[in-house]
Design brief:
With 323 residues, this protein is α+β, with helices and mostly antiparallel strands. The chain has 2 domains: 7-161, 2-Layer Sandwich (Ribosomal Protein S5, domain 2), CATH 3.30.230; 176-308, 2-Layer Sandwich (Alpha-Beta Plaits). Helix content is 40%, strand content 23%. It has helices at residues 70-82, 105-120, 127-142, 148-155, 189-202, 204-227, 230-246, 252-263, 289-297; strands spanning 5-18, 29-45, 50-53, 58-61, 89-95, 159-161, 176-182, 268-272, 279-283, 302-308. The strands form 2 sheets. Strands 1, 2, 3, 4, 5 and 6 form a 6-stranded mixed β-sheet that branches. Strands 8-9-7-10 form a 4-stranded antiparallel β-sheet. Helix 6 packs antiparallel against helix 7 (230-246) and helix 8 packs antiparallel against helix 9. The longest helix has 24 residues, at 204-227. The protein is globular. Bound molecules: (3R)-3-hydroxy-3-methyl-5-(phosphonooxy)pentanoic acid.
């Protein structure tokens, strides 16, 4: 019989509304949690410290796993942070966030594992520190991550993110319905990020100009979100998608879903995350959500509805301060 869990922890997926790729080069981006999909971890008593990733049938002994095993690394980092030896626990993790599809699966799994272990030790960490630990694991997945995934997944609230700075909260002026649609094509972020880097190295001034235009979209989008101006936000999403296509991180499958969403009445649509596959997001006026969902269901692997709810800046806990 499986022993009862000692503790549990979870973390959401995420979507990037504006600014992916440019964010790696120091420009701002906007990301929000996607709580409709989550990673869930639980700790049960055992004879040694192991992690079992149930969905992918991967099990590792934390003490002897290679340095680049992401599951073992997060457990080692949390234990080192608390000054604890590896405990005799089996830590199980499950996730319904698709892997390599722009929804922050790796960061959510690390955050869920860390939270479960912290809870089992009756300990906690400030989100800024937990985010740093998850970032260490993100480096294994991505090479040169900006840090946006670990930040939004740990803080679990919309963030204005600039690499190397504390994340900022911002207000949301109106309900923003978003439809997320999966191309079903897995695409490792590391590859797309490396290709963009090659392009930037070959023609820095062209890429800098494109990143600056993406940054301008993010800045205008923040004002439009605060003002609750859905129409402007949709136009900016389309502009951001055109710029992402220019840096060659879109794909025929993403372009097809973007077209499908726009034809069904979305205000704007773009890829989200590393691109080349993975997920697309569409901003949709509330009265159009049902028809956009129905259209995307005919051509996407999976469709998820989410929304940002209106709130004033600072009424939620500030990502820089919250616990
Ligand atoms: O593909 P995802 O969900 O890991 O998002 C990556 C976002 C990038 O800007 C492309 C990379 C990064 O580290 O910020």
């Amino acid at each position: 019989m499986t022993p009862p869990p000692i503790a549990a922890g979870s973390a959401p997926g995420k979507i990037i509304l504006f600014g992916e790729h440019a964010v790696v080069y120091g420009h701002p981006a906007i990301a929000v949690p996607l709580s409709q999909v989550r990673a869930q971890a639980r700790v049960v008593a055992s004879s040694s410290c192991t992690v079992a990733a149930i969905d992918i049938r991967h099990q590792v002994a934390v003490a002897s796993a290679p340095d680049d095993d992401p599951f073992a690394l997060i457990i080692r980092l949390v234990c080192a942070e608390l000054g604890q030896p590896l405990p005799p626990w089996r830590i199980e993790v499950r996730s319904d966030i698709p892997i390599a599809s722009g929804l922050g699966s790796g960061a959510a799994i690390s955050a869920a594992l860390a939270r479960a272990v912290l809870a089992a030790f009756s300990a906690s960490l400030p989100p800024s520190r937990l985010s740093e630990l998850v970032y260490e694991v993100e480096k294994l997945h991505h090479g040169t991550p900006s840090g946006i995934d670990n930040t939004v997944v740990v803080y679990e609230q919309p963030v204005w993110f600039v690499r190397g700075q504390a994340p900022q909260a911002f207000g949301v002026g109106a309900r923003l319905p978003i439809v997320v649609a999966d191309t079903g094509v897995p695409s490792p972020t590391r590859v797309a990020v490396a290709d963009v880097r090659h392009g930037w190295q070959a023609d820095p001034s062209h890429y800098e100009a494109l990143f600056e235009r993406i940054a301008a979209c993010s800045r205008q989008a923040r004002r439009a979100i605060e003002a609750g101006d859905l129409r402007t936000l949709g136009v900016l999403m389309n502009e951001n998608q055109a710029l992402l296509t220019e840096i060659d991180v879109s794909s025929p499958e993403l372009a097809r879903l973007v077209r499908c969403a726009r034809q069904a009445g979305a205000l704007g649509a773009k890829l989200s995350g590393g691109g080349r596959g993975g997920n697309m997001i569409a901003l949709v006026a509330p009265e159009r959500v049902a028809s956009v969902v129905a259209a995307l269901e005919t051509c996407a692997r999976r469709v998820i509805q989410t929304e940002l709810l209106p709130h004033a800046s600072g009424t939620d806990s500030d990502p820089g301060q919250s616990s």
